[in-house]
Design a protein that fits this description.
This protein is of the alpha+beta class and about 130 residues long. It is built from three helices and five strands; from the N terminus they run E-H-E-E-E-H-E-H. It has a five-stranded mixed sheet.
């Protein structure tokens, strides 16, 4: 078994949709399609109209904005549900098994609490992942 090349420390970015660069947005959409459509073979509309009303959290490989290592979207309260919701959670292949997915969920939850104080949080996920998010 070959060892994976070491990843640079991730650079985290939490921002609104209109603060994403075109390059970042393209990379996020490609990563979401790779994970949800190709790897997991989920059939649904990923670009569902909620991205513009969301905060986006991505872990990038250092300064490289061509592929996020991990990503989550937080839809603002009142858009999809009454409370803010964390969804579109992915860890790309290069970062799997590194603990970055757990860190992503912890950061997303913490940032959600800071950004939307006094709101409960809904997590949208596939049923098979309920234990992970618990």
């Amino acid at each position: 078994m070959m060892d994976r090349p070491a990843l640079p420390p991730p650079t985290w970015r939490w921002c609104r949709f209109d603060e994403l660069s075109v390059v970042e947005l393209d990379a996020i959409y490609r990563a979401r399609q790779q994970v949800f459509t190709i790897e997991q073979q989920c059939v649904y509309l990923d670009a569902d109209g909620h991205d513009a009303h969301s905060h986006h959290l991505a872990a990038w490989a250092g300064d490289d904005r061509t592929l996020p290592l991990a990503y989550a979207r937080v839809v603002h309260p009142g858009r999809k549900y009454a409370e803010p919701s964390i969804g579109r959670v992915i860890t790309t292949e290069a970062a799997r098994g590194t603990g970055l997915g757990r860190e992503l969920v912890q950061r997303a939850t913490s940032l959600c609490v800071q950004t939307f104080p006094a709101c409960s949080i809904r997590i949208s996920a596939q049923t098979r992942l309920e234990r992970f998010y618990a």
